[in-house]
Specification:
It is built from four helices and 28 strands. It is of the alpha/beta class. It has an eleven-stranded mixed sheet with strand order 1-4-7-10-13-16-19-22-25-27-28. A nine-stranded parallel sheet has the order 2-5-8-11-14-17-20-23-26, with no helix packed on it. Strands 3-6-9-12-15-18-21-24 form an eight-stranded parallel sheet, with no helix packed on it. The chain is elongated and about 65 Å long.
């Protein structure tokens, strides 16, 4: 089915637009852009060079997709922004493409970015994440599947947020947030296991208790992250979730929240 494209939209003829898209008036699309089938692009949206968008995405008014990276190392190189399928990107969202040739900013599938969110260069976002009003994600971050960053969160450069983690409103953080937990406040503090998300994903009570025990060894002791991980391996029954949180903490470069 042919796409419904307003004659008042400004679209470079080199841009590739899929089937069954709806593009409203006053949309601006540059030439090095690919948009998959079934996308809806609302008025006053800009989709800029380097953007590769999948299917059935909804991009709302005033958003800038594929904006030039806000990075002092940027020298005008070609790079990409990769967006998957079924994402909802609300009003006034800005997503930067990567800084250097061959680099990518990545947004996965089924994510919800609320009004005023900013995702900076080279950040990678998984699937089924939620970003609240006005949340800002700095460059080179990694946000894994099912993470929730609430209203006015600031994720500083290079941080990672683990699967199923939740960062509460107004929190600013510069260290990694491990999987399955809730953190919040300034300074940021551990607020317990995100049992709501674990239950949603079908993780049973027994494994949830094991996750809670693992994080007690991390956050209720004076041990280093390294020593806490050793204790988890020795004392907590194994499961894919325990392996996931251990792997996450073993690979931290910035440290984890509330740990020096």
């Amino acid at each position: 089915m042919a796409s419904d494209i307003s004659p008042r939209a400004e679209i470079d003829p080199k841009a590739k637009i899929g089937d069954n898209c709806k593009i409203f008036p006053f949309v601006y699309i540059e030439g090095d852009v690919e948009i998959g089938d079934g996308c809806i692009i609302f008025p006053f949206t800009s989709i800029l060079n380097g953007t590769r968008m999948g299917k059935r995405n909804k991009i709302h008014q005033g958003s800038v997709i594929g904006a030039l990276p806000q990075d002092f190392d940027f020298r005008g190189e070609k790079s990409e922004l990769i967006i998957g399928d079924n994402n909802i990107i609300r009003e006034n969202v800005v997503i930067n493409r990567a800084t250097h040739t061959g680099g990518q900013t990545v947004i996965g599938n089924d994510n919800f970015l609320m009004e005023g969110v900013h995702v900076s260069h080279d950040t990678k976002i998984g699937n089924n994440c939620v970003f609240g009003y006005g949340t800002k994600i700095a460059g080179d971050c990694l946000i894994l599947n099912g993470a929730i960053l609430s209203t006015s969160v600031i994720a500083n450069a290079g941080v990672r947020v683990g699967e199923g983690a939740m960062v509460q409103a107004g929190t600013s953080f510069s260290k990694d947030v491990p999987p399955y937990i809730i953190v919040g406040g300034n300074p940021v503090k551990y607020g317990g296991v995100n049992t709501t998300m674990l239950s949603y994903y079908g993780i049973g009570e027994k494994v949830q208790k094991h996750i809670g025990n693992a994080y007690r060894l991390v956050f209720n002791s004076q041990n280093s992250v390294f020593d806490s991980v050793l204790q988890i391996k020795e004392q907590v029954p194994d499961s894919p979730e325990i392996q996931n949180l251990v792997h996450f903490m073993e690979n931290t470069h910035l440290g984890i929240v509330t740990k020096l």
